[in-house]
Automatic annotation (TrEMBL):
Classification lineage: Bacteria, Bacillati, Bacillota, Bacilli, Bacillales
Domain of life: Bacteria
One biological process term in Gene Ontology: alkanesulfonate catabolic process
Protein name according to UniProt: NADPH-dependent FMN reductase-like domain-containing protein
Organism: Listeria weihenstephanensis
Residue ranges annotated for the NADPH-dependent FMN reductase-like domain, each copy included: 3-141
Length: 181
């Protein structure tokens, strides 16, 4: 069984980004994938501000990612990029934490005007951590209903999300085959 870690970079507890990421996790679980969810809200501000690499919660995140086959990292767009708090968390992870892992970036924003943020900010960051980075999914906030069980309002977005999740699982399978050869 494949294992995937989801990391939400949203500082808001009422986040559309979180809703989409949790929904993605549910889809994966229905397909037999083991999923663990982490949020930047799980970490104390002091841990991040002081760059405390030895924090127990950072250790738990590192252990989960090391044991995973893939990761999904999501963030709302803030000032044409991922959130600063997401960067602070990622800065505390080992340099090659995503080596031999497939990474799926997901970003959300108020309009399609920031669709390139995923390509110019989050994908390069995941690449620096040595992940095999997939195309990713950009979500416009108006496509998400935060109160619904199925939060995606747009059929095209639903199709893109499910397609990228399927690609994530297939890419993990390919990596597993290559590693056994």
């Amino acid at each position: 069984m494949s294992r995937i870690v989801i990391l939400s970079g949203s500082p808001s507890a009422q986040s559309g980004t979180d809703k989409v990421l949790r929904y993605a996790g549910e889809i994966l679980q229905e397909d037999g994938v083991e999923v663990s969810f982490h949020s930047v809200r799980d970490f104390e501000a002091e841990t991040l501000a002081s760059a405390n690499f030895k924090d127990a919660r950072i250790g738990e995140l590192v252990a989960d990612i090391e044991a995973a086959d893939g990761v999904i990292v999501g963030s709302p767009v803030y000032k044409a990029s991922y959130t600063g708090i997401l960067k602070a968390v990622l800065d505390l992870l080992p340099e090659n934490i995503l080596k031999n892992k497939v990474a799926l970036p997901i970003m959300s924003g108020g309009s399609s005007g920031h669709v390139l943020a995923i390509d110019f900010t989050l994908k390069p960051l995941l690449g620096v951590l040595k992940g095999e980075v997939l195309q990713g999914v950009y979500v416009v906030d108006s496509q998400v209903d935060k109160t619904a069980v199925v939060p995606i309002r747009d059929a095209g977005l639903e199709e893109r999300l499910r397609g990228q999740l399927a690609e994530l699982v297939v890419a993990i399978g390919r990596r597993e085959v290559r590693q056994t050869i």
